[in-house]
Amino acid sequence: GKLTGVLQIDNTLMSPEPHGRISIYDSRYRDKAIPDSNFTLKTKDGVLHVDAGILDTGAAVTGTLGLWGDQPYRFNAKLAQLPVHLISPEPADGSPLGALATGIATIRGDFGEVWSPVSVDARLDAVEINWGGHTLTNNQPWQLRVDGKRSEFRDVNLSGGATKIFVEGLSERQSLEISG
Fold first, then answer.
1. 3 state SS for 73-88
2. What is the distance between the alpha carbons of residues 32 and 126, in angstroms, rounded to a whole number?
3. Up-side HSE of residue 97: CA atoms within 13 Å toward CB?
4. Does the pLDDT value for residue 90 go beyond 80?
5. Cα 67 to Cα 65: distance, rounded to the nearest angstrom
6. Closest by Cα among 177, 121, 171 to 149
7. Left (φ > 0), alpha (ψ -120 to 50) or beta: where does 86 sit?
8. Helices and strands: H and E segment counts in the chain
9. Would you say the C-alpha torsion 70, 103, 122, 101 has a positive or negative sign?
10. Measuring CA to CA, which residue among 18, 31, 29, 23 is closest to residue 54?
11. Over the stretch 16-63, which tens digit does the pLDDT of each residue have?
């Protein structure tokens, strides 16, 4: 792929304020074309503001990153038929795979002297997987929460035809519980 950008750094060497735009385009992964991504960066009062269109309109991301002190960050993503199949493994039979996800996610934490564990809250309202003439969809939103070493996923479900899958799980430190 190709990466282009225009970046300007204002203010001083000890407190830079980056502004600009970065674009990733004409990319391929495993011989598949990857939709373009664009990032706009603006800094005000020591906080970097990011607006991004990732994988064309697959994910609209807005967020902030503090450039000094605790360096808190928070990014909100709105997923609209995000083409997850671009990074998924190929089916064993070699047939084409399609996987789309629609929902929201928030990622937050800080990069200060002592990094905080990342915190993720996500809800996938619509999930669709297609391969070899099969289509599976969710019938209720998937829930995902990560807080440091604790991860929880609830209501992960897919159904289509005679197939029905339901899984929930919790991981804390070195233990993992899965039910379904």
1. EEEEEEEEEEEHHHHC
2. 23
3. 14
4. no
5. 6
6. 171
7. alpha
8. 0, 15
9. negative
10. 23
11. 899 999 999 999 987 888 999 999 999 999 999 999 999 998 999 999
